[in-house]
Amino acid sequence: MIAGVLLDCHFSHWWPASIADFASSVQVRWVGGPDAPASNAKDPEILDWLEAHDFVLVTNNRRTMPIHLANHVARGGHVQGIFVVTPDYYIRELAEQIELIIGASLPDEFRDQVRYLPLWRPPRESA
């Protein structure tokens, strides 16, 4: 079961509080914040933390994180999931996606996977 979400250090400093405001039922941590990996933590350390705390990672690191995840799994480790977003992602939409993922996913549904957000988009209203 997913306990919460960890934001990597590539997001603006105001994102964690904003996501927590929009998705109040979700535990939000961030790399460099209290009760989270240090700001200088390497990707393998972040994966170890995710595994120990049952959090998912939200990152915009699409280049190296999949490689580190493959190495982590090859060593017998597991994580609840990694979700990649673009830096221009709308924060309210991200908060909605996170709430949906944490609130409605099946146990281990995203285990050891890298997924790209959005998983779904509501239909746009026509003018």
Task: Describe this protein's structure.
The protein is α/β, with parallel strands linked by helices. It has a single domain, classed as Rossmann fold (3-Layer(aba) Sandwich), CATH 3.40.50. Helix content is 34%, strand content 15%. It is built from four helices and five strands. It has a five-stranded parallel sheet, with helices on both faces. Helix 4 links the parallel strand 4 and strand 5. Helix 1 crosses helix 4. The chain is globular, with a radius of gyration of 14 Å. It starts with a strand and ends in an 11-residue tail after the last strand.
Number of domains: 1
Number of strands: 5
Q: For the CA atoms, what is the radius of gyration? A: 14 Å
Low-confidence stretches: none
Averaged pLDDT:
90
* Succession of helices and strands: EHEHEHEHE
Structural class assignment: alpha/beta
Under CATH, the topology can be stated as Rossmann fold
What is the overall number of helices? 4
Indicate the proportion of strand residues. Answer: 5-15%
CATH class: Alpha Beta
Calculate the terminal CA-CA distance, rounded to whole Å: 40 Å
Task: Provide the spatial order of strands within the biggest beta sheet.
Answer: 2-1-3-4-5
What CATH architecture do you see?
3-Layer(aba) Sandwich
* Overall geometry: globular
- Helix residue percentage: 25-40%
Biggest sheet record: 5 strands, parallel
Quaternary structure classification: single chain
